[in-house]
């Protein structure tokens, strides 16, 4: 009987030790699918009564690249930056070819700050919420003029469609 007990103890220690060496990653809310596609992710952002198709910037490299180098962005499109934790994220217009409205969205899915008409020629100026503004978990880049055209304001609700 003692041998069986010790055998199970050894097995348990082995399994615990193996799981510490090779932990199973926790599922992330935003995961990549195969062949460059993203499965189970945000596809649209509904903001100010508009439904925008979005590209996602999830990794540090994607967030650094953003919309830099693109020639244009359609009125019904945007880029959504998704951060791990809420914070005061600053944005710039490095290598941009067109102006943007940049919208910071809190974890509560409300707009916390808006930078209207961020101009590429003002790089290296940075934009972001001030000390009295809320922290953002998401940042949405859209074509310049979107905020005014759609009467977007701080406190407006935002929803994501998957």
Protein architecture, described:
It is a single chain. By secondary structure, the protein is α+β, with helices and mostly antiparallel strands. The protein has a single domain (41-161), classed as Jelly Rolls (Sandwich), CATH 2.60.120.1140. The protein has 3 helices and 9 strands. The protein has helices spanning 2-21, 60-65, 146-149; strands spanning 31-32, 38-39, 44-47, 50-57, 77-87, 100-105, 111-118, 136-143, 158-161. The strands form 2 sheets. Strands 7-6-8-5-4-3-9 form a 7-stranded mixed beta sheet. A two-stranded antiparallel sheet has the order 1-2. The protein is globular and about 30 Å long. The protein starts with a helix and ends with a strand. 25% of the residues are buried. Residues 4-40 have low confidence and may be disordered.
Helix/strand layout:
Layout: H1 2-21, E1 31-32, E2 38-39, E3 44-47, E4 50-57, H2 60-65, E5 77-87, E6 100-105, E7 111-118, E8 136-143, H3 146-149, E9 158-161
Parallel strand pairs: 4-5
Antiparallel strand pairs: 1-2, 3-4, 3-9, 5-8, 6-7, 6-8
Number of domains: 1
CATH topology: Jelly Rolls
User: Counting H and I runs of at least 4 residues, what is the number of helices?
Assistant: 3
Number of strands: 9
Q: What order do the helices and strands follow?
A: HEEEEHEEEEHE
Report the major sheet: 7 strands, mixed
Rg to the nearest angstrom?
Answer: 22 Å
CATH class label:
Mainly Beta
- Rounded mean pLDDT is 83
CATH superfamily: Protein of unknown function DUF192
Summarize the amount of helix as a percent range: 10-25%
Shape: globular
This entry's quaternary arrangement is: single chain
Helix-and-strand structural type: alpha+beta
Query: In angstroms, what separates the terminal alpha carbons?
Result: 55 Å
CATH architecture call: Sandwich
> Which strand order spans the largest sheet, edge to edge or round the barrel?
7-6-8-5-4-3-9
Poorly predicted regions: 4-40
Our estimate of the beta-strand percent is: 25-35%
């Amino acid at each position: 009987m003692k041998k069986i007990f010790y055998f199970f103890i050894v097995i348990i220690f082995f399994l615990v030790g193996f799981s510490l060496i090779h932990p199973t990653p926790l599922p992330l809310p935003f995961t990549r699918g195969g062949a460059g596609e993203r499965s189970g992710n945000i596809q649209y952002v509904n903001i100010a009564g508009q439904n925008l198709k979005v590209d996602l910037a999830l990794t540090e490299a994607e967030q650094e690249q953003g919309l830099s180098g693109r020639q244009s962005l359609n009125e019904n499109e945007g880029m959504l930056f998704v951060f791990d934790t809420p914070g005061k994220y600053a944005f710039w217009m490095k290598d941009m070819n067109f102006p943007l409205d940049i919208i910071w969205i809190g974890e509560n899915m409300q707009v916390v700050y808006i930078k209207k008409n961020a101009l590429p020629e003002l790089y290296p100026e940075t934009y972001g919420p001030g000390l009295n503004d809320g922290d953002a978990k998401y940042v949405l880049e859209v074509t310049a003029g979107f905020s005014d055209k759609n009467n977007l304001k701080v406190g407006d609700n935002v929803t994501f469609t998957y």
